Amino acid sequence: xxxxxxxxxxxxxxRVPPSRSQENARLEVEIxxxxxxxxxxxxxxxxxxxxxxxxxxxxxxxxxxxxKKLGLRCKRKRKFKVTTDPGHKLPVAxxxxxxxxxxxAPNKAWVSDITYIPADEGWLxxxxxxxxxxxxPVGHATSERMNLPPVMRAPFRAASTKRPPPGxxxxxxxxxxxxARDYQKPLCQFGMKASMGRKGDCRECEACPxxxxxxxxxxxxxxxxxxxxxxxxxxxxxxxxEISGYIGVFYNRQRKQKRLGYLSPAKFTQRYYAxxxxx
Length: 279
What we know:
The protein has helices spanning 6-14, 19-37, 45-53, 60-70, 148-162, 176-179, 181-189, 214-226, 236-254, 265-278; strands at 109-119, 122-131, 137-143, 169-172, 193-196. By secondary structure, the protein is α/β, with parallel strands linked by helices. The chain folds into two domains: 9-70; 109-278, Ribonuclease H-like superfamily/Ribonuclease H (Nucleotidyltransferase, domain 5). It has a five-stranded mixed beta sheet with strand order 3-2-1-4-5, sandwiched between helices. A hairpin with a 5-residue loop joins β2 (122-131) and β3 (137-143). α2 (19-37) packs across α3. The radius of gyration is 24 Å and the shape is elongated.
């Protein structure tokens, strides 16, 4: 009926698939698993690094080709929205960091910012502090309102956990929460130095009225692109629980960063201290 002889059909059915096809079939299963583990990262390099950790070797080109075949797509970024208010006349701290975000040791320079998480019952505001050395979120706090308390709790929690030495630079934008005297005074008690970006100094985007805080803006955008924008939170409590799990478990311990040599912040810090001990 199909114009194929019985012998030809049996030969086709019993034919052993080429080794490359068998390898690709196994690799497709591993790529699907890596795609889930990396929360649908936006490049083939990060899943490739995850595959290597699980004993699977494949080139970025091969991973990219099979991802396309499987229809696996990365989660796309959404447009940035300003959540802080630069329209105030409060005193502004000098720009001590001066765009030198690449530091050589932990607890030398931290960056901070605040963003919003939507839930059915209302907004949840997330204030975070990140170490510029390894990109680790060292402290965060949430609130139903975008006011001073969460902005103050985040660095306090970070300081109580990390115990940084005096002289640490805490960089932020020029939002009114960070310029408030009630925020600046405790920083001095902790021995921290406040730093704020200059207006119109954001080279990653167009002129920024808040002052550049690119590393922290990258951090706050990542959980939104990998979690928040693809979930629907019924309550603030649910959003808070999942964000805390994302930061504490996935972002710090599992999520690999290209600038860290495709290591997680926790692994990068471990390697740093191991190098110090070996020296």
